[in-house]
Amino acid sequence: MLPERIKALHVSIAAGPGGELVHQSQYEFRYAPDVDKDVGLLMPARMLSYRDTPLFPVMDQHLPEGDLFVRLRHMFPKQALTPMHLLALVGENGIGRLGYRVPGQMPAHAPVGLSRQALLEMRYSPQVFDDLVAAYLSTGVGVAGMQPKIMVPDRPTIPIPNVIVKAASPAYPHLAANEYLCMQAAHQAGIATAACELTYDGQMLLVDRFDVGPQGQRLGFEDIAALMGLSVRDTLADRKYQGSYQRVVEVLRAIRLPAAGLRAFYEQLVLSVMVRNGDAHLKNFGVLYDDAASVRMAPMFDVVTTTIYRYTRFAGGPEYTDNTMALKLFAGKGGSKGYPLPKELLRFGKEVCSVHNPAEVVHRVAQGMAQVLAAAGTDARIPAVLLAQLQPQWQIGMDYAREVRGAT
Asked: pTM for this one?
């Protein structure tokens, strides 16, 4: 049960002391004495307290949206769900190393684990997924995003849920298999990705959390929206679609991401362009860290071919195909969200990301995509109709390699 009003929350950092989040006319975060870990890269512990009118972005990134928010609304139909309530529901399970608890309340019971094999063998139905959510939602919401998903523990030695289970979506058929193939293409191309497996029926995707170490140690995580100081949840969610990938690189440089991290970002961007992922927004890129001196690019996650789906701007309205990127490639008034020409993608790699040979990245991604398409044809979990939709879209991307052949 949640209190009617929540004025304060205890905030832990990597399961240890952190501080207190207080909400009155403003939000205030106060570090506990002698804390040597930062609550976020933009909120170092050298300052004892911080104030802001919106919720601090490093915490805003945890707030549930989409399917999970709707489920929470049904669970608490008569109660206000303020950001403080939602953080209390996130509990200790949020992506990254921050945890939240109402003062005086006991921590949530440790969830009962499910084996990886049991998850892989689970046959999806709306009721099965509803039951899974009901079983684990009370242990901590944990993961934001619009898609139906819940976190489940599959290792008894890890005290927090470590597997994100993503379900099928009636609005986006074969979404789990779509994401699986995109992630496999990234993996085959040598891009660091969140490890994932597709259930045997092809209807759910199991994604391993990359912010939890082998012994359960928590790593800091911040998405690009948080690093930009944006609070994007709910009615302001379109902010994650504002800006450019050039601006993303400027933010990564500002936090002193090493050259290897900028190259990793470029690889992720190239993959998104070539598989026609129009949802590569500010919350679908991020960084990991132990401290401010160890910041590195987070593995790739949440990537799908969006151009195979149709959408409407309002109920009963005309259908459209998503033929644009989430952000502009280059900053400035003349920038466009249209997918770039191969030469523009190469120029971005050299001039913005300082990648010496961006054409090599394009060729590697094309090879990974071709390998995955070839293997998918004999994978019984992959519907033939999905492959038929993906192939022409991926071919457009793979043609980039032919067009940049010989470029350096």
From this structure: 0.93
